[in-house]
Structures are given as C-alpha cells and as structure tokens.
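hi! just following up on the protien thing from before. the input was this:
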Amino acid sequence: MNQLKTILLLAVVVFAFSCQKENKKENSRNKLKPFSKEMIASAIIYEANIRQYSKEGTFDAFTKDIPELKKLGVKIIWLMPVFPISKTKRKATGGGFANLIKDPEKRKKMLGSYYAVSDFTKINPEFGTINDFRELVKKSHENDMYVILDWVPNHTGWDHEWLKNHPEYYTQNEKGEIIHPEGTDWTDVADLNYSNLEMRKEMIADMKYWLTQEKVDGFRCDVAGSVPLGFWQESIPQLRKEKSIFMLAEAWEPELMKEDLFDMVYGWDRHHTMNRMAKETNPVKNWNENMEKDIVRYERDDVLMTFVTNHDENSWNGTVSERMGKAAEALTVLSYVAPGMPLIYSGQEYNLDHRLKFFEKDSIPKKKKNMWYLLEKLGKLKANNSALNSDASYKSIIDDGDVLVIEREKSGKKLIYIASLSNENQKIKLPYSESFVDYLNEQEIQLKDEMIELAPWEYKIVLN
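and the predicted 3d structure came back as:
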C-alpha cells in the first residue's frame, strides 16, 4: 500500500512539474519583446476603426480578424478612441448637433465623434465591454502584435466629470465660460488648460491606468502639436518607467522625437506631396523636394508614418481613388518603399471605395481583392528585407520628370523602386550592372544597358 502511495505521489509531482514547464513555455511564447529601434524599423501599423470595421461594430468582430491582419505584416494595432462619447453637444452628420434633430430615429443614429471623450478610463458600450477589450489585447499579443490607444489630450467632451468638478482644468474666456479649441469648428469638445498642473497629473494617471491595468502598449496622441511640449517632456518619461511603450504623435514637429519622447510622427508633407504627384506635372521633382526637406529637418533615426489614407483623409478629403486616381496603387507601394513606417487604415486592405461616415454607423467591404494581395506581398518584403528598414540608405536616381526611381540599401540588400507617374508610356535606362529580381512577378530582370519600358502608372520593385 505504501509503495502504491509513493508511485501516485511521484506521478502527481511529475504531472505538476510538466504542467509548470508547459505554462512557462506558453508564457514565453505569448510574451512580446520590448520595443526596439530594430523592430520599429521594419514594422507596419494598422489603424482600426472599430465602429466601421464590421457590420457589428464591436471589439469581438475585430478580434476575430486579428490573425488575418498578421498576414499583412501588421506589427502595431492603433485603435481609434475606445472611450465613451459625450451626449452633450454630440455632433451629427452635416456638422450640427444631434440633439437638434427632431426625428427621434434619425437622432438615435448619430453616435458622435470618437474624439469627444466623456471618460478616459471607461469603454464605449457601443463597442462592447471591458472584457471584450481585454480579449482583443490578449489576442493581439498572442499574434505578436502590439496595441496602442488613440489618446485625446487636447480636449474632452462636454459630459466629462472634470467640467463639473474641475472647471479650472479648462480654457475659459474673459467671461469665465469654458470654450472649445480656439480656431477650430470642434464645438463638441471643451479645450483643456495645460497651465493647470493638477489636470496634467490626472491626465498622466489615466494614461498609466491603460498601461498597467489593461496591458496596452502605448498611445497615438491626437493633435499632439497643440499640447505644450512641456507636457510631453513631463509625461512620457513617467509612462516609459511603467513599461516598454510605443508613442505616435499626430504632428510633424521634429522636436517631438527628441529626448526619447515620441517614436514616430506623421509624414503629413509626404502625404500631401503624394496627393499632388497624382495630379500635377513633374511628380518626381515634387517628391524629391519633399524628401530633401525631410532629410534636413529630421535626424537619420527619426521615423515618419507614411500613408495614402487614414480616418481624416478618407472621411473628409476623399478615398484613395478619389484623391490619387490611377496613381493610387503606385503611390501605395511608394508608402512602403519610402523611409518610415507604412500605415494601413481599416478598409484600405479591402479596396475601400467610399468615404466612411464619421458620426454614425457605416461599414467597410470585406472581400479580398487586388489590394489585399499587394499589401500581403509588401508586408513580407517590409518585414524580411533590410533595404526597407526605416534607417536604410535612401537615394533618388532621377531628378525630375515622370519616372520615379528610388534606391534603398542596407546590409548588402538593395531595392530599387521604378514607377511611371504619368498617363503616357515611358522609357528609361538605369545605371545598374547587377542582376535583379522583379519581386512582384518573381522573375529575373536585367537593368544593364537595357531600356526599361513602362505603361502608364506601371511600377516595379527590383531586388539584388
């Protein structure tokens, strides 16, 4: 009997040990590596519009597709604001206030702007529960992706409790009335007063909550350039003490990337230049002038987010095809081969061809077409070829005209992007003697003493 007890005890010990060992393996598999310059250099960021991503408009519906986004090479998921939206002064389609709409059914459809936050520490019930949110973060981490929240530090909605309990946290006019951000039509939000130190402390505490309690990995900070630089110098070092984080500023100012503040800013000028390249003459000169300006004002290891669309551009300025026409695909590829981090906005991967509603429910298409497969190939290239690292060398081969030729190189890997940005057929001879492979067609291509012929808006990615 004692022998049987000993055998059973040994079996229990062995089983417990094996379970512990397996749990350690599982935890090791699910643990994300800290952010590093090397990881950021090859990353792709995805902007998730939860409301419009699916018919359901929920966290759960998005979470199901996270493994699909991994196929596109997505490394960072940026969630548009997930917080409750103020009902007071809620914006409606057309720019008016929802409460002024007489038809109750139509009024109910007006969900307001994500950026009119009523509570920085709660979840918008429109999207689900806090547990649904936690499942989204968990699923992302299991798929080796980071999650950053869209943070709105410049203003709050008119229902935020700070308005009742701390009116001193807000900008006031000479009559003592709280005002919306000056010089804007953002009448659905109240402007925060950054000379109030207590407000700053509460803002930082709310940001820390999401890092420490909800395991998010950083923030995309809305209109970051409108918030005093001193706040970022105060807050970001405190946030970085909590964990390894990624910080994206919706701004272009180079000083925001100094002192280990933001990891990335918007390539706004680059984006506007691409819009012009699709419509104006001499697109190559436009691009080169912008890149020369970027080289002067940014440091070599600064990272810009490069994009052809985002939530603002799509809803207010037009779809990719509206703004870029036949150049859309070539310029999308340019957003990947240029230095920086490419952005995919919800629906872009599915050839989204309509402007998403901003203040009410809409949805994106979910059928994979040419853009999905192109982004999938570009994602693999970005992840695996060091010539597309954001810190790889950059050189423009042609000074002006309608054929853009870019050379990127790092660690012996060379990539050449050739694109006709014209409605006309183009011919060009390039100064290369090596053998190359046409990446998209998987065929060998000779550039030495060969005249390259390009159809209108045709592009090539060639690798050594």
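Residues 23-29 have pLDDT under 50 and may be disordered.
The chain has 16 helices and 18 strands.
cheers
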